Amino acid sequence: EEHLIGCHDNIYLLQYNSAKQAMIAYLYYEKHVDAVEPDMEIKAASEESSDTDYELSSTNSTLENNAIVALNEEDPIDTTQTVDSDKVIALIDTGVSEHENVIGHVSLIDDNLTGNLHGDTMVKDIVEQNENAKILSIKALDDTGYGTYSAIVSAIEYAIDAKVDIINMSMYTK
Hints:
By secondary structure, the protein is α/β, with parallel strands linked by helices.
């Protein structure tokens, strides 16, 4: 338990002091659980993205600062009270500005709900497809467009708990 820094349902976030400890744990858990994945960085997709613009940050999850802990602390926004004919779209991204189609905001990584322009661009693209779209903004990528697999998994879990109809993500990883 000393390596457990977050959990939600059957998702556990573990952190180790060395690569050797992490590899030993990986080999152990790979045989005893359904899936084991290292927590890697992911980036919001853009037309300007290239192989040379991707740098890993040194940000580490801690017991106080990880999306799985935030997921346990946040109550899902009730999306079932929207008009029956409208589908609710969870937008997992960098956060979005206020918009008439956005029915709620939540951040699983920090206190800033608005993020950068990538989330706003995604709202614009969704609304161009359906002017009546109801969008739940779930911030899982930071203001520079970077996040982690654990933050994305937590955002997906949040969207499922909120009973959204569609989950929209626009990102890539190496």
